[in-house]
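Quality-control log, excerpt.
Job 1 of 2 completed; input and output follow.
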Amino acid sequence: MADRREMWKELGMDVDTHDGLCAALPVAFGDVYLSQKNRPEGMAFWDFVVSDIHGIRPAELLEAQKEGRKVFGTFCVFVPDEIVVAANGIVTGLCGGSQFWVPDGEKVLPKSTCPLVKASVGARLGRTCPFFRIADMYVGETTCDGKKKAYEILGEDVPMYIMDLPQMKRECDMLKWKDEIVAFAKKVEEFTGNTITPEKLDEAIRLINNKRKALARVFEARKNPDNIPISGTDALLVTQIAFFDDPARCAEMCNKLADELEERNRQGVSVFEKGTKRIMITGTPMAIPNWKLHHIVETSGAAVVCEEMCTGTRYFENLVEEGLGTLDEQYMALSKRYMKNNCACFTPNPGRVEDILRLAKEYHVDGVIDVNLKFCCLYDTEGYSVERALKEAGIPVLGIETDYDDGDSEQLRTRIGAFVEMLG
């Protein structure tokens, strides 16, 4: 791995503290990922990315900035990447999935705040995430109260743009979200100095659609009822990295991996023994490097075959209509696609329950684990409706609340082990 310390110093990072994260990550990655057997060869790319996760992509972003391009850091799947790409900008996800960042977040946020929000703020204020240091602008959205107030802190020394997401899905809300996209496009044009044209936006829509199609192919291979060609742990990593990677490269590597997985299905090459119970995980997103739950499930006698969450099917399902001739039509198409994300922030939200029941059939699952990050009242409250619907459908379900700390790992292992055993 290249020596990135000079780059990190130039970014104003706390390099000494960051070294602690760099030292811990390879051990955690080795324990979770490299201990797996019979992994697809295509996973070597994602192993390589993680080996230098705070170096490879940040270096690319810095080179792009030298060419005059702007980098936009985002927190959520509702921010339309297509708008930024159409203005020759770059989108990157932002750090927020490790207990390492939580203490710095708790210096300014209540302890009763969701760990994802605390970790994001801590990664920025602690100066231990290069993506937070590089981004020229942060783009937030009003999906939860914790993030809304955190944006006020994050926006103190970096330009912060917030998109006001409607809380319902009526026709007027679709139009309102379209207006928000139009306003965002104007801000991006102003910030980048580049004009968004119908031609550029259509090209961007096709690029991001191709990324979604490639991710969908990886997940499609997981639907095989007789074979499990990739672990859920590996599939989760692919999705997590997709938030940070160049979209064209992401599509290329996902398609190569999908080719291998499809061939594995044809040849009956599985990463689990025949008869292993198939689990779907639903609930709050799992930002990198939050691999705890998948690792516990897949070392407790079961396999994760699907994730109904933002770091799962919500990220790539549904395409934006292509080939539209005017910006007005394109903005409306973007609104319709993004409003199909069935986040727990909406009320009423029957679409998410319908998605879960549909995916449970498509992926031939034996049981569902509904996971909630502590203090996320949205998903915690919606868990009632989710678990009731699954029970009525005769699908076993286990509700879990956890955070990033490993202190509850053995308790979770006991509960998940008992759930898997109950599946027979």
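Job 2 of 2 completed; input and output follow.
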Amino acid sequence: MFWRHAETEARQVTPDESEWFLRVLCVGFGLELGSARRFFYDDPYFEVNQRWGLWLHEREGAKLVSILTAIPLSMWVGTRSVNCYGIAGVATLPDYRRRGFAAELLKRALRRLYAEGAPLAVLQAFNHEFYRKLGWETVGMIAHARLAPKQLPRYEPTHLRRATPGDRNAVMQLYADYGKRRTGSLERDARRWDYLFWNLPNLWVCEAQGRIEGYLFYDFLDSGWTLRVRELVWSSERARRALLGWLATNEESVQQVEFQMPLDELAALGLTGWSAPPTEPTQPLYTVQVLPNLMARPVQPLALLRVLVAGVPAPAAFCPFNLRVRDSVLKATSDVVGITQSDGVVQVGGEQPNAPMLTVTPQTLALLVFGTLSVHELHARRILSAPEPLLETLDALFPVRKPCLAPIDFF
């Protein structure tokens, strides 16, 4: 059955339409309506989320067939925090799938976000190719490892206890002091912390001499047989060993402990432990998969570049340039952005006469700003086409960053 653009209406859902939105969400993701209702309305982001819907006008009237949620967030890119929208809960009723409704809804929502001046939109994709066609690109990877509890180091789990509401401020402070502001992680304001404590009730802390030195957020998968580490932060070796030692004690209650985090952070945990040394040289201690993770899409390039590079020290031999994004969905982004320098700092503004032009796709700009690959690597792979004199300037402005969205920041 074909449809025409005139037969659809895409807009934000009004408060009195929330229940219809929830019903489509439950059908689309196979959720039980009664159980989902509490989580839907009690979500700390409920009041600020943009809930979008696409109605199909049929003979029987208008029917809500496709939905998405745009969540206002702030994400770290290098040393700067960028306001963005997280796109989540994209769902279409089963009888209306594969007819382009979700893609049309995403396009309409993007145009509205552009009009708002949003620099960036990010998501965790069920199908990376689907979103790539709409301008998103895979910018982050995540290391994934599952170990049986007996494979973990059997440290003595001392100074551990379940967290209480009174530990909230100490946990937040520990994260502020020792948490990593990695590119791709979310900035945690009060609302974000409200969401984490509401959504993740399983929290253990390591307290010694009246001071919390580490904590572990976790939940369960596979009907409870897999314990998933959502975040493990420690400020002392005592805390690292105690928290890993506690995970190792779960042998009777879970079959596996799952870790998902950047590869270097996984290595820093020191997971290799055994009750007896391995006997076979070909037997792996454990297996790590590196999986595609975060997708990002520039929405308003001028706003994005102003946040990321305006005011940074201009690199040596700075080469001014113009940047144009070739965007088939957001054609307004074809406006040219000029990157110059004044008094030793980078300036971002309008088109600069006589400066070289750099034309990129939204996907390439996403890779650039997140530092997924180096500028020279993007150039060698023919993803980025730039004049040779400009490469060093681009390399200084957009260094490699190894982005990753950790599970605790999933939205």
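Post-run check on job 2. The longest strand covers residues 61-77.
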